[in-house]
Amino acid sequence: LFVEAPLAEGAALTLDGAPANYLGNVLRLAAGAQVKLFDDVTGEWLAEVVGAGRKRVTLTVVQHLRPREPVPDIWLLFAPVKRGPIDWIVEKATELGVDRLLPVVTQRTVVDRLNLDRLRANAIEAAEQCERTALPRLDPPEKLAAVLKSWPEDRVLLFADETGGVPFVEATQGAGKAAILIGPEGGFTQDERAAVRALSAARGVSLGPRILRAETAAVAAVSVWMATAGDWP
Ligand code: SAM
């Protein structure tokens, strides 16, 4: 379970709201029960329930289990797609181990407002489910032009381009820090494609001969990256 406060041995915790409801009413834990908590700073701890009411649960942190895990240095940049698919992108990218999620507004992005709180809650829930002790960084949307303007030269930008790119595995050769860029349902405009390709750190990559939905492309690209350059054995 994710908790905001930095955890420490012997700390006394009082949980309200959703975490308390989950422990007290869903799991119906009683005093003496043990749970695993993580805070995205110090890692994962074992805690013991001291008291569990309907709205409040008190615990004592008893043992440090593991430090905050090192997360592969991969960013996922994606044009916001509608509710549902975008929730799925955040959830799957979190499970797969992405370090940073950056929504990028492009000319054909149809979504104008993003509920970052909902997306952050999706990331937390996905991290809890896959037992990840580090949350992905989720940033507010930025315009593509601004992202390109301030792009860090030492990070390869793998630009998923259905109109043509090199095979993904070839593009990741020798790429240290990397990022993946996925377009909106309507795709990138020609100008956008040219602007991205003008970046020396950009490499156009193919995800195969078919047109994938943006959410499929995001998960496919991250999975291939993890398998070729990430932390999969
Ligand atoms: N231009 C597409 C069309 O004709 O329908 C629309 C874009 S596609 C639905 C959404 C995004 O997924 C694209 O902008 C691209 O980033 C990525 N994508 C989809 N299929 C791909 C492929 N075969 N290779 C590389 N990227 C792909």
TrEMBL record:
Keywords from the named record: Cytoplasm, Methyltransferase, rRNA processing, S-adenosyl-L-methionine, Transferase
GO molecular function: rRNA (uridine-N3-)-methyltransferase activity
GO cellular component entries: cytoplasm
InterPro entries per record: Alpha/beta_knot_MTases (IPR029028), PUA-like_sf (IPR015947), RsmE (IPR006700), RsmE_MTase_dom (IPR046886), RsmE_PUA-like (IPR046887), tRNA_m1G_MTases_N (IPR029026)
Domain of life of the organism encoding this protein: Bacteria
Catalytic activity: uridine(1498) in 16S rRNA + S-adenosyl-L-methionine = N(3)-methyluridine(1498) in 16S rRNA + S-adenosyl-L-homocysteine + H(+)
Function: Specifically methylates the N3 position of the uracil ring of uridine 1498 (m3U1498) in 16S rRNA. Acts on the fully assembled 30S ribosomal subunit.
Family to which this protein belongs: Belongs to the RNA methyltransferase RsmE family.
Protein name: Ribosomal RNA small subunit methyltransferase E
